[in-house]
Design goal:
The complex is a heterodimer of chains A (about 160) and B (about 160). Chain A has about 160 residues and is of the alpha/beta class. In chain B, strands 1-2-3-4 form a 4-stranded parallel β-sheet. The chains are: A alpha/beta (about 160), B alpha/beta (about 160).
């Protein structure tokens, strides 16, 4: 097992559901309850120092339970290593704590995941749609969003 | 326009409408609403090689209040649609609209949740240019088509808008 996953598992033994390093990509599946604490640890631990949140996105596994998955891609400019953190969320309660307090740059990624998948980031300072317009109904990258659905055209704002 | 049959100096007869149309025809000021790769072809059409100024349409106006032709070049999504409509509303009469490329004409291959399926859902379009993207020749042809509309006094698309 890699240094990163080893350290994460030692520190949070009950929070890490599973890990793998397939194709050289360290990946950890985490329970959602203490996610901010875990991300802060990944950022601040002197052996890990994940100072750069490269990406956050969501995945819709329609038909599975839990249905949604939030994926964090982290990179350490200091140590030059990467880790992928995954958290599964249930369809009826797609809520996770916001990581904006850990990395301010993750703000817009969380807004995008909210816009496209309807994942709610609790504690986000400005959780509004970022790509679609306010009047848009639904979350278009969910697998059950109708392919041919069209939204009403909005007029000029007066 | 009727010229002096003798061919020498003298007078010519015309109607006011045809004189105005003749003037408009060679002084079309385009407003380019370029949102995608079609915009690059528009630049090519204005450049020295294709030289749209041969047809009197080279003075690009970036204020809609000074423009005659709205040249919509590129993909228009639902979020952009109210902006485009407002720019069209700000243009002074008489005005014409060219829809350039399949994205503006019908949405093209962006048959999805975010892209307007043709700008004729919100605007009256006079000339459509097919292609992805069309050549600069397509833009020149569209300008010539607009000139023909002006010359013949044909009704504009705005006159039969909205389409029932």
């Amino acid at each position: 097992m890699s240094v990163v996953l080893d350290r994460l598992r030692t520190r949070f033994p009950s929070e890490v559901a599973s890990t793998h390093s397939d194709f050289g990509d360290d990946t950890a599946l985490i329970r959602r309850e203490r996610i901010v604490e875990i991300l802060t640890f990944l950022r601040d631990d002197p052996e890990l120092l994940f100072d750069f949140a490269m990406d956050l996105t969501a995945v819709d596994y329609l038909g599975e339970s839990p249905r949604f998955e939030v994926v964090y891609h982290l990179y350490s400019l200091e140590k030059r290593h990467r880790v992928r953190i995954k958290v599964r969320l249930h369809e009826e309660d797609p809520v996770i704590d916001s990581a904006v307090a850990v990395w301010p740059g993750i703000n817009w990624y969380e807004r995008e995941a909210y816009d496209m998948y309807g994942v709610v980031f609790r504690g986000h300072p400005n959780l509004r749609r970022i790509l679609m317009y306010e009047e848009f109904v639904g979350h278009p990258l969910r697998k059950d969003y109708p392919k041919a659905k069209r939204q009403p055209t909005i007029g000029p704002e007066e | 326009m009727a010229m002096n049959p003798g061919g020498g100096g003298g007078y010519s007869l015309s109607t006011l409408e045809s004189m105005v149309a003749w003037g408009r025809k060679y002084s079309l000021y385009p407003f380019t609403f370029a949102t995608a790769c079609c915009g690059i072809e528009v630049m090519g059409a204005f450049g020295t090689h294709y030289d749209l100024s041969r047809f009197g349409a080279e003075v690009v106006r970036f204020s809609p209040r000074q423009a005659d032709v709205l040249l919509v070049a590129g993909t228009i999504n639902y979020k952009m649609a109210p902006v485009l409509k407002r720019i069209y509303d700000q243009m002074l009469e008489p005005k014409w609209v060219i829809s350039m490329g399949v994205c503006a004409c019908s949405g093209g291959f962006y048959n999805n949740y975010s892209v307007l399926q043709g700008i004729d859902k919100i605007l009256p379009v006079d000339v459509y240019i097919p292609g992805c993207p069309p050549n600069p020749e397509g833009i020149i042809d569209a300008v010539v088509q607009i000139q023909k509309l002006i010359e013949t006094g044909a009704p504009r698309a705005a006159d039969r808008w909205p389409i029932k």
